[in-house]
């Protein structure tokens, strides 16, 4: 199980809210710390990959279970 | 990444057309773009302090209507009085139900993320807007103001 320092519940939210909320949540953690994001928007899978590539925050892992997506983002720096 | 720039012109003042500029502006800002949006003509409606945006099925054959209504209401039916309010209420309901952000929410996220919102001075004069009907956070300017940031932007969109 991937460890994380902070969690963001973005379930029930649609594009672009999971990304916008994640961006905000990243502000509250230190570089190197991990944010876990819970989401139900199927579009968020591609979007978190794209977000990670463009912002330099690393997407450590992403998984799906019963229509729920889990993303682990490691803050850059 | 911090140096990429996005310039958007928002020209439409309906609920449906309010989404693309605010979604792209807020997401661009989250990705590290420096974003400016120039609101002109009907787009200026999107800068009102109190938003009253509507969506109309009239002249909009691409708009899905609930309960197969498009089959029962031919083109002329979409002009029936009250249709616009009804479709607006249904659309807002659906937006909420599906977890899509409201325009008010996206707009305040833009402001929070330092997206620069610029109202078109000519439109204000043309349609007799009062400055205090519009958000305090905006700047006013003209076409040359737009080019000042569009000219050095990486992405420029007309919406």
Summary of the model, kept short:
The complex is a heterodimer of chains A (77) and B (159). Chain A has 77 residues and is an alpha+beta fold.
Overall description:
The complex is a heterodimer of chains A (77) and B (159). The model of chain A has no long low-confidence stretch (mean pLDDT 95). Chain A is built from 2 helices and 4 strands; from the N terminus they run βαβαββ. The N and C termini of chain A lie far apart (23 Å). Chain A is globular. Chain A is an alpha+beta fold and 77 residues long. In chain A, 30% of the residues lie in helices and 34% in strands. Chain A has a single domain, classed as TusA-like domain (Translation Initiation Factor IF3, 2-Layer Sandwich). A 4-stranded mixed beta sheet of chain A has the order 1-2-4-3, with helices on one face. Chain B is α/β, with parallel strands linked by helices and 159 residues long. Chain B has a domain of 110 residues: Hypothetical Protein Ychn, Chain: A (3-Layer(aba) Sandwich). Chain B has 6 helices and 5 strands. A 5-stranded parallel beta sheet of chain B has the order 4-3-2-1-5, with helices on both faces. In chain B, α1 links the parallel β1 and β2. Chain B is globular. The relative contact order of chain B is 0.24.
Write out the CATH superfamily name of chain A: TusA-like domain
Low-pLDDT segments, ≥5 res of chain A: none
The assigned structural class of chain A equals alpha+beta
Average predicted local confidence, pLDDT of chain B: 92
What CATH calls the topology of chain A is: Translation Initiation Factor IF3
How far the N terminus sits from the C terminus of chain B, by CA atoms, comes to 24 Å
Question: Strand order within the widest sheet of chain B?
Answer: 4-3-2-1-5
Overall, the morphology of chain B is: globular
Could you say how many structural domains of chain A there are in total?
1
Name the helix and strand elements of chain A from N-terminus to C-terminus, one letter apiece.
Answer: EHEHEE
Greatest interface and its residue counts? A-B, 15 and 12 residues
Specify the CATH class of the domain at 5-57 and 102-158 in chain B. Alpha Beta
């Amino acid at each position: 199980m991937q460890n994380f320092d902070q969690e963001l519940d973005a379930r029930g939210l649609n594009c672009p809210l999971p990304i916008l909320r994640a961006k905000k949540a990243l502000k509250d953690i230190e570089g190197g710390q991990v944010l876990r994001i819970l989401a139900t928007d199927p579009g968020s899978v591609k979007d978190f990959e794209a977000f990670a590539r463009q912002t330099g925050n690393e997407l450590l892992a992403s998984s799906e279970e019963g229509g729920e997506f889990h993303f682990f983002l490691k803050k850059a720096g | 990444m911090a140096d990429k720039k996005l310039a958007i012109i928002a020209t439409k003042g309906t609920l449906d057309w309010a989404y693309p500029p605010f979604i792209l502006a807020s997401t661009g800002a989250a990705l590290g773009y420096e974003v400016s949006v120039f609101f002109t003509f009907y787009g200026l409606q999107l800068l009102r302090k109190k938003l009253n945006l509507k969506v109309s099925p009239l002249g909009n054959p691409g708009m899905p209507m609930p309960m197969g209504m498009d089959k029962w209401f031919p083109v002329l039916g979409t002009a029936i009085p009250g249709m616009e309010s009804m479709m607006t209420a249904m659309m807002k309901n659906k937006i909420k139900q599906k977890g899509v952000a409201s325009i008010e929410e996206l707009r305040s996220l833009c402001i929070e993320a330092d997206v620069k919102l610029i109202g078109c001075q000519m439109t204000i004069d043309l349609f007799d807007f009062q400055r205090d009907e519009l958000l305090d956070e905006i700047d006013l300017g003209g076409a040359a103001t737009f080019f000042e940031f569009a000219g050095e932007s990486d992405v420029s969109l007309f919406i």
